[in-house]
Structures are given as structure tokens and as C-alpha cells.
């Protein structure tokens, strides 16, 4: 059975912008993020031949995580103006694919992808999630895999449960416990002083949960970290809450995915011509109906 391809839209869009040099149309319109987004997506459509496609987009408002922790993602840099200039085109591009685009105020795209993934898994449908956000790796179990898009020059890595465990020393569903201890600089979640990835993975394997770890803090080695654990209790539990993806996002009624049909290919072709993406036309034509 071919998988449903779920796309973490802004993650892919941002990574495409940073991976490619400046590109402009003859009229001076910046296009590198749009081009990179399309190039990566067409490659996956050609190679994976998914049964359906859907996009998740972050709403332009604060989420429940900001309400719980005011400093959430507060250290992120401002979006570069050449990238901002391409957002208007992105909306039209997503429409051309003629696949569902989900955006739910109060939730992140990650939560939408988690909700969709769990729904498809209950139906027995395999899922491939495309993202450059490590938070999505907690979904990689059962029939759900994550195609992680690395930094510029790195090849995408396909993660299933075994690959996550090999990379982090913990399973996908244990990643929120792990992140609570090591922190997450991209989300501005502070890690526990003196605790690195190896120690965090060892503790998660030994104790199973933050609650058990905190209750049995007197067993922790080295001993100097016992007091740190108790002092950081509230932040650790909050970190885990913020790092855990929600699978209960209230999605609107309607199709959850759609295949790339002839109408979508025609719309994409017209848009590629307009944006002067000549090299992508042959890749689009190579997609099987």
C-alpha cells in the first residue's frame, strides 16, 4: 500500500530558502524558496508515489504553547524579507496541488500532522511525514515514518521507530521525556544543567518517565544532579508538555488527503511557466497519472 504524504509546509519552505542561492524571475520576483519547495516535493511524489497528499500550515497566531510558556520560540530570528515576499505565492502554489491544506488557530502544524497521522494509522493507512522539525520524530512508529529534511547539503533521512531509537537512544514516544531533559534551543526550552543527550537517554531508559525519575531522584548518579532535578521539577514537566505533540486537533470536515490529478498537474505547469521554473516542467511531466 502506498503511503499518504503529509507535508510540514513552513518547515519545508524555510529549509528550501536557506538551501538555495538567491533566485529571481526576469521581473525581479524572488523565488528560491518556492523553487526548492517544489523540487523536493516533486522528487518525493515521483519516488514514493503516494496514495494521497495533504499540507499542514501554522496559523499566524500564538498557540496554546505560548499561553503556557511566554518565552516559547522567543529566540527565533525574524523572517528574512526575501522569504516574506514569497509567502503570497506559496498560498497559490498549495492551491495548485489541489490537496487539503490544514491550518487550525491555537495549534501548530506539528499538532495537525500528529492528528492526521493518528487518524490514518487507525484506518490502517501508511503515512510518510515530510519535515525538518525533530519534534515530528515522535510520530515515527507503527505504519508512520518521518522523512527528516536536514540542513543544506544533507540528504533527507527516513526515520522509523528503530532509526529513532538508534539516533537518540530512546523510542519515538519517549522523545518528549528526553527533550524535557536536554531542552530544545529552537523552541527556547531550557535543558537541565549538566545533563546531555547520553545522560538523558540513560535516565529515560532506566526510569521510564519524568515522574518516576523525580520520585526516585535519590538513585540518580552523579549525586550532584539530584538537587538540580528537584529544583527544576516544574520546568522539566512543562518542557515535556510543550514538546508533546497533540493528536486531538479539531480538523474541519472534508477529505484528509487527495492524489495529484491531471487538473493539479495542469495548474502547476501554468504556475511553473509563470515563475520561470523551466527545469521543473520535465519533472512534473515525469509524474505518473
Describe the structure.
The chain is 47% helix and 9% strand. With 289 residues, the protein is α/β, with parallel strands linked by helices. It has two domains: 4-169 and 246-285, Rossmann fold (3-Layer(aba) Sandwich), CATH 3.40.50.1010; 172-243, DNA polymerase, domain 1 (Orthogonal Bundle), CATH 1.10.150.20. A six-stranded mixed sheet has the order 3-2-1-4-5-6. A hairpin with an 8-residue loop joins strand 5 and strand 6 (157-159). The two termini are 17 Å apart.
SSE blueprint and pairings:
Layout: E1 4-8, H1 9-19, H2 32-48, E2 52-56, H3 64-68, H4 81-84, H5 87-97, E3 101-102, H6 109-122, E4 127-131, E5 144-148, E6 157-159, H7 161-168, H8 175-182, H9 197-207, H10 210-215, H11 224-231, H12 233-243, H13 262-275, H14 278-285
Parallel strand pairs: 1-2, 1-4, 2-3, 4-5
Antiparallel strand pairs: 5-6
Domain tally:
2
Strand content: 5-15%
Under the CATH scheme, the architecture of the largest domain is 3-Layer(aba) Sandwich
Estimate the mean pLDDT confidence.
Answer: 94
Task: Strand order, main sheet: write it out.
Answer: 3-2-1-4-5-6
Structural class by helix and strand composition: alpha/beta
Quick rundown:
Helix content is 47%, strand content 9%.
Entry keywords:
DNA polymerase, domain 1, alpha/beta, 2 domains, 289 residues
Amino acid at each position: 500500500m502506498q503511503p499518504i504524504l503529509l507535508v510540514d509546509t513552513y518547515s519545508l519552505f524555510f529549509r528550501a530558502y536557506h538551501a538555495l542561492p538567491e533566485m529571481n524571475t526576469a521581473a525581479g520576483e524572488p523565488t528560491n524558496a518556492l523553487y526548492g519547495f517544489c523540487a523536493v516535493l516533486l522528487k518525493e511524489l515521483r519516488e514514493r508515489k503516494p496514495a494521497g497528499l495533504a499540507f499542514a500550515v501554522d496559523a499566524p497566531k500564538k498557540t496554546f504553547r505560548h499561553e503556557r510558556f511566554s518565552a516559547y520560540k522567543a529566540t527565533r530570528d525574524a523572517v528574512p524579507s526575501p522569504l516574506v515576499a514569497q509567502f503570497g505565492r506559496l498560498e497559490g502554489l498549495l492551491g495548485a496541488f489541489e490537496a487539503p491544506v490544514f491550518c487550525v488557530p491555537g495549534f501548530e502544524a506539528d499538532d495537525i500532522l500528529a492528528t492526521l497521522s493518528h487518524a490514518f494509522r487507525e484506518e490502517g493507512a501508511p503515512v510518510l511525514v515530510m519535515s525538518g522539525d525533530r519534534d515530528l520524530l515522535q510520530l515515527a512508529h507503527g505504519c508512520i515514518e518521518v522523512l527528516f529534511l536536514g540542513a543544506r547539503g544533507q540528504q533527507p533521512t527516513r526515520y522509523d521507530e528503530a532509526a529513532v531509537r538508534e539516533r537518540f537512544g530512546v523510542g519515538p514516544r519517549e522523545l518528549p521525556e528526553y527533550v524535557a531533559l536536554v531542552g530544545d534551543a529552537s523552541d527556547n526550552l531550557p535543558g537541565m544543567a549538566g545533563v546531555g543527550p547520553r545522560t538523558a537517554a540513560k535516565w529515560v531508559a532506566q526510569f521510564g518517565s519524568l515522574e518516576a525519575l523525580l520520585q526516585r531522584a535519590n538513585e540518580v548518579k552523579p549525586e550532584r544532579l539530584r538537587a538540580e532535578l528537584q529544583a527544576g521539577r516544574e520546568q522539566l514537566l512543562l518542557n515535556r508538555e510543550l514538546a508533546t505533540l497533540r493528536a486531538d486537533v479539531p480538523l474541519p470536515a472534508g477529505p484528509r488527503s487527495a492524489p495529484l490529478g491531471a487538473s493539479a498537474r495542469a495548474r502547476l505547469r501554468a504556475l511553473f511557466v509563470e515563475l520561470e521554473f523551466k527545469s521543473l516542467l520535465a519533472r512534473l511531466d515525469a509524474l505518473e497519472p
